[in-house]
Design goal:
heterodimer, A: 143 residues, mainly beta, Jelly Rolls, 4-stranded antiparallel beta sheet, 10 strands, B: 133 residues, 6-stranded antiparallel beta sheet, 0% helix, 54% strand
């Protein structure tokens, strides 16, 4: 199975000048409760236009088959205007706010089928990109 | 204002024939409240016992955390830990060794972040946060 590695570094020279900050964390992306690597990746990009509240774009639906499985989500706001931001939602809950250039990476917990991830632009049109690393899916039979 | 530079790198040489080599970075101006790199032992499967980010007052909080894979810094564990807003809704589940980084800003405004171990056991977690300037 695939070995995909996610590495984070956080640095700051001026947070505490006498002791520069340097954080590094790395993990291999695995299926839930195993050491088997995730081998499916979905990704995309687009432009989010400002829409009425709750009319954002669903990045990934939660599914019955996905409950309890592992998935890692990356999202990035590629806007350049620092006042534009993307609201990241888990169903009805606004979880975070990505201002221009900001990104996030987290293991997404699909507790139920109402755990979809969606995004909404605020302030102005926001180009964005996303990727989800996830477990395999059972192929659908022909009908 | 101090500046944080977070960088994400994703790599794989065998996920597909198209090798993954991806990196994105950012520059964040931050201010107080700040929690320097810290460790805590999440002690139970009651999230309210493990609040690590107090109510944010609606500000953007850059939050980092990592499951150390241990109960106390030395004894290994693979029990996952849910990351929840303080209203008890989980939004991420960290397995041993996994980390996350998000700009947390909950719609309810005055909400923080807590850890909830998925079974009643101890897990040592590493975390830090910074507030958007």
């Amino acid at each position: 199975m695939a070995t995909t590695t996610a590495t984070l570094s956080i640095a700051s020279a001026d947070l505490l000048p006498s002791s520069p900050l340097s954080i590094s964390a790395s993990s291999t992306l695995t299926k839930a409760d195993t050491t088997i690597g995730l081998h499916m990746m979905e990704s995309g990009s687009g432009e989010l236009t400002v829409a009425a509240s709750n009319n954002g774009v669903v990045v990934k639906e939660a599914t019955t088959a996905g409950i309890g499985t592992a998935a890692k989500v990356y999202l990035c706001n590629k806007a350049t205007d620092p006042t534009y931001y993307i609201q990241v939602k888990l169903h009805d809950a606004i979880l975070g706010r990505l201002y221009a250039g900001d990104w996030m990476f987290m293991p997404w917990v699909q507790g139920d089928t109402d755990a979809e991830i969606s995004v909404e632009a605020e302030g102005g049109t926001c180009p964005y990109e996303w990727a989800i690393f996830k477990e395999g899916e059972t192929m659908v039979a022909r009908t | 204002m101090p500046t944080l530079t977070p960088t994400l790198t994703l790599t794989s040489t065998d996920a597909t024939i198209d090798q993954l080599a991806f990196s994105v970075t950012d520059s964040l101006s931050v201010t107080a409240p700040i929690q320097s790199m810290s460790k805590t032992i999440a002690v139970s499967n009651v999230g309210g016992d493990n609040i690590v980010v107090p109510a944010t007052g609606g500000t953007v909080t850059y939050f980092y955390c990592r499951h150390t894979g241990t109960t106390d810094g030395s004894t290994t564990t693979t029990v996952p830990v849910d990351v929840e807003e303080t209203g008890d809704a989980a939004f991420a589940r960290l397995a041993a060794g996994e980390w996350m980084f998000i700009p947390f800003c909950h719609h309810a405004g005055n909400v923080g972040i807590q850890f909830q171990v998925t079974t009643a056991t101890n897990v040592m977690m590493e975390y830090a946060f910074w507030t958007k300037a």
